[in-house]
Amino acid sequence: MVVRVDVAPELFEWARARSGIDDETWERRFPKYESWLVRETRPTLKQLEEFARKSYAPVGFFFLPEPPMEKVPIPDFRTIGDQPVGESGSVGVAADLLDTIYVCQARQEWYRDSQLMNGEPPLEFVGTADIDTPVLEATERMRTVLDWTSNTRSRLRSWADALTALRENAEAAGVLVMISGKVGDNTHRILDPEEFRGFALVDEYASVVFVNGADSKAAQVFTLAHELAHIWLGESALSDLEPESTRSIETERWCNQVAAEFLVPMEEFRAVMRTSGDVRAQLQPLAEYFRVSTQVILGRFREAGVLSWSQYMDELEIERNRIARYLEENTKESKGGDYYNSKPVQVSKRFARQLIASTLEGRTTYTDAFRLLNVKKSKNFDGLGQKLGVV
Q1: 176: β partners
Q2: 16 domain-assigned
Q3: Which residues make Cβ contacts (< 8 Å) with residue 333, sequence separation at least 6?
Q4: What does the pLDDT look like over 177-204, one tens digit per residue?
């Protein structure tokens, strides 16, 4: 006798909303969905487990009487319009976002335990600032720890170089930096930059910064600096970096100001910008000079008093549309890159090196290591060890 499971229709709708799967893929992947939704038929337990796996939902939730009120497990400083998202729970939190935070938290927990077991000291700079700390003072502290100066920037040839240099300097200081544009290695689960740009998980022994790698390299540079500011502030946060967020939320405003001053010092900006003439004509040259996005340069023009808030927002919308058109016309299908170069960036080179060493020494099981690194084959694990100089 086949046992079927009675699932509330609202739970099927909840799973669909949070999955982020487009309609065409959904219909192809779940041909029985509509019949389950109207209770024309009911799924077997095996079918329900398969549905949960493919829709990225915990199977246990389907036995609840109504959809759970899911919340992001860290302070949420994103906005919808001009309203903070984090003021209330949401039934529609994206599965991709939640799964990304959860795996980063798992890595953070392992790394923290490892640091404590090895008797490592805490990171001295975590939580050494607050929102009353002057921006210039906080920026100078970050520059000292991260070894980031105008001379450092002048040696970088591209935005990709700037991102790599800042990431490596942050990791050298003890912060785990993870940059990925997808959930794990699943190329069907691309992270949406409009959903979030990045987040910070603050801990005095194991601070983590995650940057949405589906964003442009120029945008990722600013996101990394913004989330690093959260580490100095000592507060975990999920960010979208939208102007509405940074204008209406004091913490986000402070972190944005610190990130902007860190990457584009106002004194230097005033020295190279032109106060007269077309602002738009200066965007790309200045973006290349400072190795940031043109949107960041627009923000500095506003902060320098060249643009009003309304002018800034108008110009920002024009620039966003221009970039969207450019990306649509010029983006080519990704070849995926070299696995052994990209994987350490996705999971943090510092984290991967320490985890692999611990596993080879017998202090961490291979099962846990494979799970935390999201690798399935021994050859990939060994290859990563060789790439990172552990083996």
Answers
A1: 208
A2: yes
A3: none
A4: 999 999 998 999 999 988 899 999 999 9
